[in-house]
Design brief:
Oligomer: heterodimer
Shape of chain A: globular
Helix content of chain A: 55-70%
Largest interface: A-B, 106 and 119 residues
Shape of chain B: globular
Helix content of chain B: over 70%
Strand content of chain A: under 5%
Number of helices of chain A: 6
Structural class of chain A: mainly alpha
Strand content of chain B: under 5%
Number of strands of chain A: 0
Largest sheet of chain B: none
Largest sheet of chain A: none
Number of domains of chain B: 1
Radius of gyration of chain A: 17 Å
Structural class of chain B: mainly alpha
Number of strands of chain B: 0
Order of helices and strands of chain B: HHHHHH
């Protein structure tokens, strides 16, 4: 599906799909579509009362894009760094950080900002700033990524 | 059963959107965060595009008594910001910048993300297990 350029059009189309998914989850299930909260509630047992919804959401989140891969005429890659030490450090930071903050890009960003939630806006400002600073520090200063 | 079906519809549409938007490609995410490199504006279109349907959805929710499948709409969270919100967001942002994956795309891309994708997801889950005691420790320090 790379026949339409530039990429921002696909960004907008995909973004509308992400927002529509969040709208379905809110208006039908009455829940905030936050990826870190949905999986985090299974990990720390705080969300076991709604395990079936969470498992169904996560299963479809994995299966549907996997089924779409053949639509692409180029190889789809995450282009993740081969440096596993960096990957482990980043994974730990994302896991700890999203649970401390009670949300990530989907919960605070998509669902929070659209509700004019001060918490969502503040969280988004801080994770964007931290991400930008991480790029400067680890790519341009230290050269490790 | 309906709740499970609609959760799957939401999850599937979310995953499809993440793939279509390019957010499962760490180069695009890091390209957005790297304002001093070859800056890539895609993420702004993704976030903007995702907020639009939700602006409408919150308006609809405010006019309805309950979600279509019953239960209650999520209440407004405690408006106080708190140290955990800021500290957690900074830690999350640092990890997001390091590798270019946040929780949604990390899960969505697990079938094609290779070893790195699996290692990231396992580390993220380990971090989530470690978070409650870390939060308790942070709260103790903040109260001191």
């Amino acid at each position: 599906m790379s026949f339409i350029q530039p990429d921002w059009i696909w960004g907008l189309v995909g973004g509308l799909m992400i927002g529509s998914a969040a709208a379905v989850f809110l208006l039908f299930n009455g829940r905030i579509m936050g990826a870190s909260g949905i999986i985090g509630g299974l990990v720390d047992r705080s969300g076991w009362g709604t395990w079936a919804e969470r498992v169904a959401f996560l299963a479809a989140l994995v299966v549907v894009p996997a089924l779409m891969l053949p639509l692409y005429n180029v190889e789809v890659s995450t282009n993740i760094t081969p440096n596993l030490a960096v990957v482990i450090a980043a994974g730990l930071l994302v896991g700890i950080g999203t649970r401390l903050a009670n949300g990530c890009t989907s919960g605070h960003g998509v669902c929070g900002i659209s509700r004019f939630s001060l918490r969502g806006i503040v969280a988004t400002v801080f994770y964007l700033l931290a991400g930008g600073i991480a790029m400067v520090l680890f790519r341009h200063v230290l050269g490790v990524i | 059963m309906q709740r499970v079906i609609f959760a799957a519809i939401a999850g599937g549409l979310f995953g499809a959107g993440l793939l279509v938007s390019g957010m499962t490609d760490t180069n695009k995410v890091q390209g957005w965060l790297d304002v001093f490199g070859a800056w890539d504006p895609t993420l702004a279109f993704v976030l903007g595009g995702a907020i639009l349907p939700m602006l409408v959805a919150w308006q609809i929710a405010s006019r309805r008594a309950a979600p279509a499948l019953g239960g209650t709409f999520p209440g407004r969270p405690d408006p106080r910001l708190g140290h955990n919100l800021v500290l957690g967001s900074v830690l999350f942002g640092a990890g997001w910048g390091l590798v270019g994956l946040c929780p949604g795309p990390a899960i969505a891309s697990i079938s094609w993300g290779g070893t790195g994708g699996v290692v990231f997801l396992v580390a993220m889950l380990a971090g989530m297990v470690a978070a409650p005691p870390i939060r308790a420790q942070v709260d103790r320090l903040a109260a001191a």
